[in-house]
Amino acid sequence: MDTPELENIEVALFVQALQRRYGYDFSQYAPASLKRRIQQLSEQMECKTISGLTERMLHDPPLLPRVLDGLTVPASEMFRDPAMFRSLREQVLPLLASYPQINIWQAGCAHGQEVYSLAILLEEAGLYERTQIFATDLSERALQLAEEGIYPARDAQQWSRNYQAAGGNHSLADYYSARYNLLKIDQRLRRHVTFAQHNLVADGVFCEAHLILCRNVLIYFSNPLQDRVLSVFRDSLVRNGFLCLGMRESLDYASAAASFAPFDECLRIYRLAGQPERAFA
Amino acid sequence: MNTPKAIVIGCSAGGVEALKVIVGGFSTRLQQAVLVCCHSSSETMDLLCEVLNRVSSLPVMEAQERHPVQAGTVYLAPSGYHLLVEADWHFALSIDPRVNYVRPSIDVMFYSAAEVWREKLIGVVLTGGNADGASGLQRIRSLGGTAIVQSPTSAEIPTMPQAALDTAGADHCVDLSDIAPLINRLCLA
Predict the structure, then answer these.
(1) Which mean pLDDT values do the consecutive 10-residue runs of chain A (281 residues) have?
(2) For A96-129, what is the HEC assignment?
(3) Which residue among A87, A262, B13, B34 sits deepest, i.e. has the most Cβ atoms within 10 Å of its Cβ?
(4) pLDDT > 90? residue B2
């Protein structure tokens, strides 16, 4: 038996151990990326094999947050895909403005860059005072970092360019303070954000939302799990509510996608079509 | 007979011209899927798709998340995402951190393809200014696949093929103009 096959056995055992020991189920994650992340985690934790990582994880519960963080957190940036944020600013927010109270769910908020991007858009549109953003993630560590809003200053230049390209009418620097090699997001932007742990694999409807952002999260999920999460989004959105996915995500294999109509297909912005299907009570 | 099922190609600086020569030289009878990772600063692969479609007898398109890998088709890794292949021959994307300072990374694509296609894979490293692809090519060889490296002397930027040779070695180290005929021969034999 050669190394990839041995590793596949180790990955399956790791996933099973994580589920049985701590209740987190990664069995529906897309295998190729999951394996990469598990391998990287073993390297970071200086385990010679994935089995070594499994052993440490089983016997050392304080390691769990680090394990979950390693398995879930993708890289992000502020105003990533500026064209999408520009469309939110110019097309979507004006439609949301008709609601007296706006609820936004950012599912899989990672380290919070998009949460703050969104808060800035809302602030500049004059809608933030009547908005509530629910920012959720599986990883508590990610939520902590998101709440702190401290990022490496080297990212600022790219983020400023993104902000301008997204139609920003100030300077991004108005929203953070820089010190040493770090930038800290203005804490006032946090005033209508609630950070909370939520597991897309297992948890259900979280709030009634007018807009859901879940960008580049479902790319890590298998087809059945992607479909499940889309159903949760469908059941969470108000009629005609908006859903934003990552720019290269495909809905071609999800039956729940039938509930969504493209608002801007190219930017992966969708709207809940008609009444969501609900069972008779 | 180990007829290859897929070909993975990595290139960076100078890659577009090299790809035109190679993709343009593929036989119309090629039954293999071709996956290309080309470092680029542009936000979409539309232009590269267009340029390659003009010279290619096989259809050229951007790889789409979750879609099956089809034979006789050339796929480009989308800009900003790592491209991986699942064991059931479907594409997967990832925005995990850059590898070798780049995303998409050739190494990520090579590693994942090597596990899926093993000895039925051809890996190709072309011109470029960094070392991405070297370790992935080593993985391809260690799992029984075939490695082709563009001869550094025929590369616009020799760093990448040289790094691949230093790390992984090669089954074939040939000039740019000889790569497509070699692939046709290996695949149609």
Answers:
(1) 90 98 97 97 96 98 95 87 97 97 97 97 98 96 95 94 95 95 96 97 94 97 98 97 97 96 97 64 38
(2) HCCCCCEEEEEECCCCCHHHHHHHHHHHHCCCHH
(3) B34
(4) no
Q: Which amino acid is at A122?
A: L
Q: Are A181 and A154 in contact (CB under 8 A)?
A: yes
Q: Dump pLDDT digits (tens) for B144-158.
A: 999 999 999 999 999
Min Cα distance A30 → chain B (Å) is 8
Domain boundaries B6-188, corresponding CATH code: 3.40.50.180
Question: Which of B 35-64 lie inside 8 A of A, CB atoms?
Answer: 64
* ipTM passes above 0.85: yes
Nearest-CA distance B181 → chain A (Å) = 32
- pLDDT tens figures, B17-46: 999 999 999 999 999 999 999 998 888 899
pLDDT at A97: 97
Give B-chain residues touching A76 at CB under 8 angstroms: 95
E runs forming strands in chain A:
102-107, 131-137, 150-152, 176-179, 182-185, 193-197, 209-214, 237-245, 260-264, 269-272
Mean pLDDT of B46-56: 96
Q: Could you tell me if B105 and B98 are in contact, meaning their C-beta atoms sit under 8 angstroms apart? A: yes
Q: Is B132 a catalytic residue?
A: yes
Mutate to test the interface with A, among B82, B94, B135 (most CBs of A within 10 A): B94
* All residues at 6 or more sequence positions from B156 whose CB lies less than 8 Å from its CB, including other chains: B13, B14, B17, B18, B127
**Would you say A183 and A177 are in contact if contact means Cβ atoms under 8 Å apart?**
yes
Domain regions of chain B by residue span: 6-188
Ordered by where they begin, the domains of chain A are: 3-72 (no CATH), 82-272 (3.40.50.150)
Looking at residue A260, its pLDDT comes to: 97
pLDDT tens string B67-79: 999 999 999 999 9
All residues of chain B having their beta carbon less than 8 Å from the beta carbon of residue A74 are 94-96
Query: Which residues numbered 215-244 in A keep a CB inside 8 Å of some CB on B?
Result: 216, 219-220, 223
Q: Cα dihedral angle (B93, A111, A124, A178), rounded to 10 degrees?
A: -120
